[in-house]
């Protein structure tokens, strides 16, 4: 049964879709078009989206990762801030899952899904999500800022929480321009860690220093000393450096492999140095609540590359695919 709607709508909503997938030319399947109003199942809520942030996951979807041809077209997007049916400002948690099936952590639910996989995503004027996936938006954050937090920033936050590092320890962040890496630099500094960054781009390194990085190194460069933890979202291009950079008994936290899977994995180094490898995907609803509160209390603001109206989403996708980004790209809806 569907919930009765309390707003008056036109015949459809503007949305950004994956109409088809193509591994070599992902943007060829990207379409901006009107879609029918969504139904609202029992226990779900309708959200009027005001801002939604772009992630690499959206590009991977256009390449066919996590999306089958019989599930298309699919509205893309995982991050959003907006207003619920009662007029409350909300932030959307993108993980659709059962905490009980994940032993208290919905991210560990074997059947978990992210918005835009089995369910339509956030790049639309209206969105439906389970009621538990809505969190109050802090007054200290505007919609554009809040929309940046549920994926890249939440992932960086969970990585830091699971790194085993303590205030005063040194953390190496691999990369300096993406949503996760910029979030990690800002959050790690606010948590009291010494933050080092490795990047192949001198300009991004300069901007990372402006964000608060204590030292910036070339990718693969020998460091002055080994670090307590490494945050790696790059994969093959940085894996060997991450293992060489961390101290014996330290931790390498991995949240992605944008450059591919590493080969070799270097198991000999891992067991001999007793390096702890921790995988992280997104974060729980409770962790998102903690991140929102932390950012509001510490006056932390996400790093935003550009803000575009939703109907110009293709421009944002093209910039992300080209790597011409420092921070988050956000789409807004009047």
From TrEMBL:
<protein>
    <submittedName>
        <fullName>Alcohol dehydrogenase, zinc-binding domain protein</fullName>
    </submittedName>
</protein>
<dbReference type="InterPro" id="IPR036291">
    <property type="entry name" value="NAD(P)-bd_dom_sf"/>
</dbReference>
<dbReference type="Pfam" id="PF08240">
    <property type="entry name" value="ADH_N"/>
</dbReference>
<dbReference type="GO" id="GO:0016491">
    <property type="term" value="F:oxidoreductase activity"/>
</dbReference>
<dbReference type="InterPro" id="IPR013154">
    <property type="entry name" value="ADH-like_N"/>
</dbReference>
<dbReference type="InterPro" id="IPR052711">
    <property type="entry name" value="Zinc_ADH-like"/>
</dbReference>
<dbReference type="Pfam" id="PF00107">
    <property type="entry name" value="ADH_zinc_N"/>
</dbReference>
<dbReference type="InterPro" id="IPR011032">
    <property type="entry name" value="GroES-like_sf"/>
</dbReference>
<dbReference type="InterPro" id="IPR020843">
    <property type="entry name" value="ER"/>
</dbReference>
<feature type="domain" description="Enoyl reductase (ER)">
    <location>
        <begin position="25"/>
        <end position="331"/>
    </location>
</feature>
<dbReference type="InterPro" id="IPR013149">
    <property type="entry name" value="ADH-like_C"/>
</dbReference>
């Amino acid at each position: 049964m569907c919930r009765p709607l309390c707003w008056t709508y036109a015949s459809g909503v503007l949305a950004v879709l994956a109409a088809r997938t193509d591994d070599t030319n992902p943007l060829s399947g990207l379409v901006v078009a009107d879609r029918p109003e969504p139904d609202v199942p029992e226990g779900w809520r309708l959200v009027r989206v005001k801002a939604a942030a772009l992630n690499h996951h959206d590009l991977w979807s256009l390449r066919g990762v996590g999306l089958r041809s019989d599930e298309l077209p699919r509205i893309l997007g995982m991050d959003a801030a907006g207003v619920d049916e009662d007029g409350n400002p909300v932030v959307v948690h993108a993980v659709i899952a059962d905490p009980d099936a994940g032993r208290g952590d919905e991210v560990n639910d074997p059947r978990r899904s992210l918005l835009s996989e089995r369910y339509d995503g956030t790049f639309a004027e209206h969105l439906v999500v389970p009621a538990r996936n809505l969190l109050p938006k802090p007054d200290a954050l505007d919609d554009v800022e809040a929309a940046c937090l549920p994926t890249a920033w939440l992932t960086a936050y969970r990585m830091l929480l699971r790194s085993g590092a303590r205030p005063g320890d040194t953390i190496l962040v691999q990369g300096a321009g993406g949503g996760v890496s910029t979030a990690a630099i800002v959050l790690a500094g606010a948590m009291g860690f010494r933050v080092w960054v490795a990047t192949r781009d001198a300009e991004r390194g300069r901007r990372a220093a402006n964000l608060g990085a204590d030292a910036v190194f070339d990718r693969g460069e020998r460091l002055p000393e080994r670090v307590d933890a490494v945050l790696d979202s790059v994969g093959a291009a940085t894996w060997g450096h991450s293992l060489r950079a961390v101290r014996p008994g330290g931790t390498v936290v991995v949240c992605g492999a944008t450059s591919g899977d590493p080969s070799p994995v270097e198991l000999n180094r891992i067991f001999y140095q007793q390096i702890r490898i921790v995988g992280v995907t997104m974060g729980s609803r409770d962790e998102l609540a903690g991140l929102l509160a932390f950012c509001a209390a510490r006056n932390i603001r996400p790093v935003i590359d550009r803000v575009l109206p939703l109907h110009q989403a293709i421009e944002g996708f093209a910039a992300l695919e080209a790597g011409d980004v420092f921070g988050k790209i956000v789409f807004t809806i009047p």
